[in-house]
Amino acid sequence: MELHRETDADTWEVEALLDTCFAPGRTALSSYRLRDDVPPARDLCLVARGRAGEVAGSIRFWPVRVGTHDAMLLGPIAIHPTRQGEGLGAYLIQSGLDRASAAGVKRILLVGDAPYYGRFGFRRLAGVTMPPPTNPDRVLGIWDWDGVTGDVTKAAWPGTCPYDTSTPDHLP
């Protein structure tokens, strides 16, 4: 398995993987409204390729605001159906969290299953509201969420990210 930063050259293959894993209607989800016209934090986004060069998995991060605070929205994370159950999802999540930590990201949120993401340290975020129709029990976060509440909205910075998402050379 080869893990590398997602580049523009990976985009069509990653989009095809996302369609395979989530169906083409995935872009109708409310979390996609937070991503519209906002570039991902490209240095945090990762692609895993198998031995034949195929995209086996991907993880993306997007800058958002929660109330008056900056945060990163993790997702989507996708593993090709033929590669599920191999631990690749956990590897991508942990690698992404390591990169985000090295870049100084203070808080990350996602919409997902607490039992799965809890093993990475994610916990339910009371007082943080994703756009509807999101189940509040599935809004999870990690790291510095003390005193952070409010609506999750699109990042207010066009084309840039408030974090230096460049990462040390020892990270993929």
Structure explained in plain terms:
The structure is a single chain. The chain is of the alpha+beta class. Helix content is 20%, strand content 29%. The chain is built from four helices and nine strands; from the N terminus they run βααβββαβαββββ. Strands 1, 2, 3, 4, 5, 6, 7, 8 and 9 form a nine-stranded mixed β-sheet that branches. A hairpin with a 5-residue loop joins strand 2 (46-49) and strand 3 (55-66). The longest helix is centred in the middle third of the chain and has 15 residues, at 88-102. The relative contact order is 0.20. The mean pLDDT is 89.
Low-confidence regions: none
Judged by helices, strands and strand pairing, the structural class is: alpha+beta
Over all CA atoms, what is the radius of gyration?
15 Å
How much helix, percentage-wise, in residues?
A: 10-25%
N-C termini distance: 12 Å
- Globular, elongated, flat, extended or rod-shaped: what is the shape? globular
The total strand number stands at 9
How many alpha or pi helices?
Answer: 4
Average pLDDT metric: 89
Strand-residue fraction?
A: 25-35%
Listing every helix as H and every strand as E from the N terminus to the C terminus, the arrangement reads: EHHEEEHEHEEEE
Q: How would you characterize the largest beta sheet?
A: 9 strands, mixed
Keywords:
172 residues; alpha+beta; nine-stranded mixed beta sheet; 4 helices; 9 strands
Topology summary:
Elements: E1 2-5, H1 11-22, H2 30-33, E2 46-49, E3 55-66, E4 69-79, H3 88-102, E5 107-111, H4 114-117, E6 123-124, E7 128-129, E8 139-143, E9 150-154
Parallel strand pairs: 4-5, 7-9
Antiparallel strand pairs: 1-2, 2-3, 3-4, 3-9, 5-8, 6-8
